[in-house]
Design goal:
With about 300 residues, the chain is of the alpha+beta class. The protein folds into 2 domains: about 110 residues, Arc Repressor Mutant, subunit A; about 150 residues, Jelly Rolls (Sandwich), CATH 2.60.120.280. Helices cover about 35% and strands about 25% of the residues. It has 10 helices and 13 strands. The protein has a 6-stranded antiparallel sheet. A hairpin with a 2-residue loop joins β6 and β7. α5 packs across α8 and α6 crosses α7. The longest helix is centred in the C-terminal third of the chain and has 19 residues. The chain is globular and about 50 Å long. The chain starts with a helix and ends in a 12-residue tail after the last helix.
């Protein structure tokens, strides 16, 4: 970890409650691993994996009940709950998914998310994230299925749906073994099974300015970003950057901190990396400072995700 990264981190107030970003497509925090629904053990570690232009997937493992407030899901997702319960809330809107069920979530939705492990057990789920372009091309096709504007729960997906889910997972996890055209076909097949199950994702909306900035930051959450660097990446002046971000409720330093905490949460849920290494991955030289920031955002210590005392 360089001095540059250490000096690039600045104090940011987290006292304001706002929608926080969870980017499941970060290449900086992603690595390829394979593991299937049948429970076959992989020789690789528990990791997130991403296949550019195809999608991303990972397991979430949690050993207790935790609530993540105001999360923004920035890619269309299908989540399969294998053990425990997932609850997603937005105002008066609520969806509960028990083990064996699935939920499709549209992009840029804001939810409070509760992952609940059974007593003495674990919470285990898998997610697959789709590229918006793939969802958009699917949305143009005619279908009697209802448009999913927020989320759709599938209480008991049929076996063919689950088989398609496994094949899509494999396609993302094994780029050497599954050619890209086949991988693309498998994810589209899963979208078709979602369609036949009663819903299809709504047409993705264009990203706003803050979302475009967030996408860039997420590629390298541990980098010593400055407003000048981000403005250059977006081909605008620094003054324009700050004005446009503020207009969408995201001062630059708040956005940067949000990206870093979101990336850290993903790594804690879906990898075996030590907390210190995760802190460094997202730009913190000090594990204690990282833990303070993480607790300020989520209300519990980073180690709580892995079953340690909060």
């Amino acid at each position: 970890m360089t001095e540059e990264i250490l000096h690039g981190e600045q104090d940011v107030s987290h006292g304001v409650s706002r929608a926080q970003h969870v980017d499941i497509s970060s290449r900086e925090t992603a690595a390829i691993v394979a593991r299937n629904r049948a429970g076959e053990k992989s020789s690789s570690q528990h990791r997130i994996f991403v296949r550019p232009a195809i999608g991303a997937t990972a397991h979430i493992i949690q050993h207790n009940r935790l609530r993540y407030s105001n999360l923004v899901i920035n890619r269309p997702l299908i989540i399969l709950v294998e053990h425990g319960t997932k609850i997603m809330r937005s105002g008066d809107y609520e969806i509960t998914v028990q083990a064996g069920g699935a939920i499709a979530v549209c992009q840029n939705q804001v939810f409070d998310v509760i992952n609940e492990a059974k007593a003495g057990g674990i919470y285990l789920a898998r997610w697959i994230a789709f590229e918006p372009d793939m969802v958009q091309s699917q949305a143009h096709q005619k279908s009697p299925a209802a448009s999913i504007d927020r989320a759709l729960a599938l209480k008991a997906p049929q076996k063919a749906f689950l088989d398609a889910y496994d094949l899509a997972t494999e396609a993302i996890a094994d780029p050497d073994g599954v050619p890209e055209p086949i991988a693309d076909h498998r994810l589209r097949e899963l979208l078709l099974w979602l369609d036949l199950s009663g819903g299809r994702f709504a047409m993705p909306q264009p990203d706003g300015f803050a979302q475009k900035a967030r996408n860039i930051l997420t590629e390298k959450p541990g980098y010593a970003w400055s407003g000048v660097m981000l403005a250059r990446a977006l081909s605008v002046s620094e003054a324009t950057l700050r004005r446009k971000l503020s207009a969408e409720g995201w001062p630059f330093q708040s956005l940067l901190a949000d990206v870093r905490m979101s990336a850290a949460m993903q790594l804690l849920q879906s990898t075996d990396r030590p907390v210190l290494h995760i802190a460094q991955d997202v730009g913190y030289e000090s594990q204690s400072r990282f833990a303070i920031r993480f607790r300020a955002r989520f209300g519990f210590a980073p180690s709580a995700i892995r079953g340690h005392r909060r």
